Amino acid sequence: MAGVIRHRFFWPVATLLILLVSNLFFSPDFFAVEVRQGHLYGSLIDIVRFGAPLILVSLGMTLVIATGGIDLSVGSVVAICGALACLRISGLGDQNSVLGVLLAVGLALGLALLLGAWNGLLVAQAGIQPIIATLILMVAGRGLAQLITDGQIITINSSPYKLIGGGYWLTVPFSILVALVVFGFALLLTRRTALGLLIESVGGNAEASRLAGIHSRRIIFTGYVFCGLCAGIAGLMISSNVSSADGNNAGLWIELDAILAVVIGGTSLAGGRFSLGGTVLGALIIQTLTTTIYSIGIPPETTLLFKALVVTLVCLLQSRAFRAKVFHRRPMPPPAQPDRQQEPKVEVPA
Amino acid sequence: MATVGEPAPILTMTGISKQFPGVKALDGVDFRLFTGEVHALMGENGAGKSTLIKVLTGVYDVDEGDIVVDGTPVCFAGPLQAQQAGVSTVYQEVNLCANLSVAENIHIGREPRRFGAIRWGEMRRRSRRLLDGLGLDIDVSAPLGTHSLAVQQMVAIARAIDISAKVLILDEPTSSLDASEVDQLFRVMRQLKEEGMAILFVTHFLDQVYEVSDRMTVLRNGRRVGEYATRDLSQLDLVSAMIGKELAVLEELEEQPRRSLATLERDRPVVEAADLGRKGAVAPFSLTIHRGEVVGLAGLLGSGRTEVARLLFGADRADHGQLRVDGEPISLRGPRAAMSHDIAFCSENRRTEGLVADLTVRENIILAVQAARGWSRPLPRRRQDELVDRYVQALRIVPANPEALVGQLSGGNQQKVLLARWLITEPRLLILDEPTRGIDVGAKAEIQRLVVTLSDGGMAVLFISAELEEVLRLSHKIAVLRDRRMVDELANDDEVTAERIMSIIASGNGAAPSEDGPPPSDPDMVVIRKEV
Lengths: 350, 532
What we know:
- The structure holds two protein chains of two kinds.
- By secondary structure, chain A is mainly α.
- Chain A is built from 15 helices and six strands.
- Chain A has a two-stranded antiparallel sheet with strand order 1-2. In chain A, strands 3-6 form a two-stranded antiparallel sheet.
- By secondary structure, chain B is of the alpha/beta class.
C-alpha cells in the first residue's frame, strides 16, 4: 500500500478519480459509454475528445520544460495554424477536396514547425531567457493570426477538414486517435532513443551536459520545434471542431492550462526529469475539471475561481512539504531542502 | 568564558542513529564539543561526517538519540532554527548568493533598518568592521562572485559568527583554498577559539588537523571509533583508525616509487599544444603529452591550471596557437570535438560542471558515451548495465546501486562516478582537474593508483592538483603555472622537490609576472594563427 501511495502517479490518478466520481452525484449516467450510429458516445469520451488539443500542447510543453525552458507562445501558434489552414481551405474552389485540405494542413504544420524553430533559435542560439523569447511570439503571434484572418472569423464548410477535430474513425473520435498517436510517438522518441536522457541531462545541468559532449543547443532547439508542432496540430483540431478560425480567441490561455498539466503530471518547472504519462493525466484532470464545472452547473462567473481552487488543492496535495505538515504527527516536519532527495522521510515507521 | 576541559560541554550528542533507505548512516554515535576548542571530525567518505552535521543542524531529523546544546535538549527543524540557537554552519561549497554584494550576503535576512528602509551605509560599515576583525580588507559593495573562493569562504564565516554563534561548524572549509589562504583561515579560527567559540572542523587534510585542532572524533562506517586529544594520536594511528586497515598497507600506499621520464618510452606525442592560448584565460603555452605519460600541472589556485585543461578539451576555444593530435593539426569547436579525438576531461567542479545530480549513477556514467553516439543510437540497456556494473565494482562506488541518484552520493563517490563516465569512453588523453580534492585518504590512494595503472596501460594523463606531493609522486613531467603563464617545465626525478616547485611558483623563474591578462608572446617564436 505504501508503495502505491508513493508512486509518482498516485496523487494525479486519485484526483482524476475523485473528480470523475463526484460527477456521478450530478449525472448518474456519467460513466455510460455507448455506440450510437457507429460512434462512441458518452461523457468520458467527450472529456478525452475535447481534451485532446490540451493533451497535445501539454506534451510539447513537457519536453520544453524538461530542457529547463518554457513556451508561452503555444496559444498563438494554435491560433495561427488554425487561421492559416482555414484561410487556405476557404480559398479552395471545392472545400471538400481531400488534396486541397491535405495541402492546407501540411502548410499549417510547416508553419508551426517554423514558429517552433524561431523560439528554439531565440532560446538556444541567441541565449534569450525562454520566458522572454516565447513571450515575443505569444504577443506577436496573436497579431499574425489577426493578419491572416484579416480580423474576421473565417468560417469554412469542409468535411475532410472537419474530420480532424470533430470526426470519427472506426467509431472512435479522430482527435483522440491523433492525440494517442502523438503521445505514442513522443514516448518512442524520448524513451526508445537516448533523446529523453539527453533532455533530462540538459535540463538538469546544462553546463555539465555540454562538458559531457552533449550538443545542449540542439537538444533545446528540438524541444521547441516539437512543441511548436504539437501546438500546430492542436490548432488544426480546435478550428476543425468549430469549422472556423478565430485569430483572437482560439487557444487563448491554453499555455497556462498546459503548464499546469505538466506540473500536475509531476515534471518540475526547474527542468530535468519529465513524465509524458503524468502530463497526459494532468491534461485529463484539467479537462475533467472544466467539464465538471459545466455539468454541475456552477455559475459561469465563478468558474475560473472554482478551477483555481481545485488546482491549488491538487498542487498542495502533491507538495511533499505540505503533506508532511498535514499528515504527519512527527514533531519536526522535514525542512524545505533544495529537494530532489528520494524522500527517506516518508517511510520512517511511526 | 569556559576553558578547555571544563566538565560541561556546550554540545552533547548521545546515541545518534540515522537510517536511510538501505543504509544505516549513523549508528549510536556519541559526540561532545567544548567551548574554546577546535574539534576535528574525521572519517572516510561515507563514514557519516556529513550526516552527523546535518542531523545536528536539523537538515535531517534524528531517528534515535539526543542532542543537548548549552544544557537544553534540542531538536532543530532546520538550519535556521539551529542558527538561532547559536549553531552556525559554513559548508564546503559556499552557500551564498554570488550576485549580491558582500555586505548584502553578510546581512541577508537581518539588514539594519530604519523605518523599514534598509540602511545601506550602516550595513557596509558593519560589514567592513566585521571583515577587518578577520583581517580581510575587501570591497564590501562588490558582488560576492567577483571575489575569490577563499574570500567567499571568509565572508560565509563572517556571516556565521556575526549571527552570534556559540558553535561554528566548518565543513571542508579549506578544500578550495591555497596555502596562504589556509593560514589566514586558521588564524581566524584560533582567534575565534580564544574568544570562546566551539569550532567543529571537518577536513581531509591530515596536516591541517594537526595544525589547528585540539581534539578529534573519528567515525567509521557510521560508528564512532573514538575521541582523542590530537597530540596523543599519531598521524598513522589516525589514518588506521579512519580506514581500519593495518599500518603496513598504508605505508605501501604511500611508498609508490618516484616515476621519471627515463622509465618511459616516448614515441610520437598524443597531444601537442604549440603556443596555445586564450586572451584573458591563459598566455600561450606549449606542452606535449606522450602515450603512457603523466604530466602534472602545478600552480596556485587561479594560476591558469584549469584554463589549460579547458583549452585542451575545447571547453573554451583557443584564440591563439595550434593543437595537434597524433601530429595532425586540429581545431576544437567544443568538447564533442575533443571527445572524437579521444580526449576526456574530469572537471574540478563536480557539482556544477561534472555531474547531473538529478540523474542516476548509471545515467551519469553513460552520459559521455551516449553523447558521442548521438540521441538516435541509444546504448543498449544490457551493455549499459555491463559497463556500469564493471566500473561501480572496479572503482568501488558506494552505494553500489546504479539506480541511486548521484546527488545523494558522498563527494568521493561522486568523483568516482565522474571518472567512470570518462573511463568508459576509453580516452587516450585523460585530463584530471583536482580529482582528489575533498575526498578521503582511502579514495585518494585509490585514484592515485588508478592513474598509475592507466598510464602503465598506455593512457596519457594530464594531472592537476594543488597538492604538490601528489603531483610529484605521479607525474613523469611537471609544468608549473604562475599568473596564468606556464613558467617552467621539469622532468621529474629525485632532484625535483616540492620546495623547488614552490620556489618556481613564488619567483616565476625569471619570467616577468604579469598582472592582468597574458603578455604579448615571445617575438622570436613563430606564431601559427589558428585556422578554423
